[in-house]
Amino acid sequence: MDHSAEFSIWTYSAIIFVVVVVSKLLSKKTGTVDVLWLIIAGTVLTNLGWLPKHNEFLEIIGEWGIVFVMFALGLEENLERFRQGMKRSIGVALIGAIFPFIAGYGIATFFGYNHNSAMLWGLTMTATAVSLTMMSLRSDLLHRSTAATGIMTAAVIDDVLSLVGVAILIPIILVSSGDGATTVSMTHILWIIAKVVIFFAITLFLGLVAFPEKVPSRLPENPSLYQILDYYVSRVLTVIGARRFLMVHQGEFTPLVMVLIAMILGYVAHEFGFHPAVGAYFAGLFLQADYFVHFEFKKVRNSEGEIVLEKRRDDQFESAANVIQHLAFTIFGPIFFVNLGGKLVFDMEIVMQSMPMALTLFGAVVT
């Protein structure tokens, strides 16, 4: 029975948050991941008509949710450990992109699909569902482990490879299928690759300069171009940049400023062909705990009765990160996973037709 015509957005909102609360309780009782229950509930309620198959407002809120989730995960990661993980994860990412592509292409060919369809199968297998993986690890308190860092860094590289793969293979598929394209535009392919390079150049610049670990006190002798840029830009940004901006009015607006930074980098990522959550993850990665320290001077009376100025340290990181975590894992993030479950349609004919292929593909990827 389809109730979608009868229900308002407020009804849907109430249903979703009931699902969130129940899923959290079930995950605690059963020792399972709450994401599993959220997806199952989204699937069941959507197919029963209690949640809409498509609602633009809820889908936008869900997209906010995955951005907040990745931002919160970035906040919990250590920047230096992530750098080291990037160096070790290149081989893992290549294997994680190439072998699933081969598996997808091979299984599609085995079941009689043509070359173009088989390439699409392969492309769909190259992307990594990193948010599901990291949420599962977080539920077991393993999200700060070396393995979790390796998964995250490999996923970032994997997303780049997937983006480049789409840029190269989709035009080829369109040309060979005759669907409106007559030539493979090398310019378009090179522009996609250039956008990847530009995005990571901007991200690296922000990480090293706009969010510096430390501001160089002076220029070394015979400085390189990077050292000159680092010195002057870092000194400017310590006055007008992230650290001062985060602690404006003694940190009264710190969570709001953090969300602003995440959304700005999310926008940059989106403009360069990545999901906004990738940019938000880097935003969280760059925001280090010592950016949130504020020192204030208060008049106090000492043991001798004299009034003196006392320097007090006010660290806003834990409280601000706690706000972001609630937004990510309790409020907005779960909506994304409920919406994700709603994409699964119960149709026994489709299920029976696709089950042999799905099981074969699953077995090939696992092995």
Output the keywords:
367 residues, mainly alpha, two-stranded antiparallel sheet
Structure description:
This protein has 14 helices and 2 strands, in the order H-H-H-H-H-H-H-H-H-H-H-H-E-E-H-H. It has a two-stranded antiparallel ribbon. It has 367 residues and is mainly α. It has helices at 9-30, 34-48, 56-76, 79-110, 115-126, 130-139, 146-177, 186-210, 225-240, 242-246, 254-271, 276-286, 317-341, 348-366; strands at 293-301, 307-315. It starts with 8 loop residues before the first helix and ends with a helix. Strand 1 (293-301) and strand 2 (307-315) form a beta hairpin.
- Give the overall silhouette: globular
Order of helices and strands: HHHHHHHHHHHHEEHH
Which strand order does the major sheet show?
1-2
Give the N-terminus to C-terminus distance in angstroms.
Answer: 41 Å
Helix content: over 70%
Gyration radius from CA atoms, angstroms: 24 Å
Largest sheet: 2 strands, antiparallel
Classify the beta-strand content into a percent band.
under 5%
Q: Give the overall average pLDDT.
A: 76
What class, by secondary structure content? mainly alpha
Number of helices: 14
- The counted number of beta strands is 2
Low-confidence stretches: none
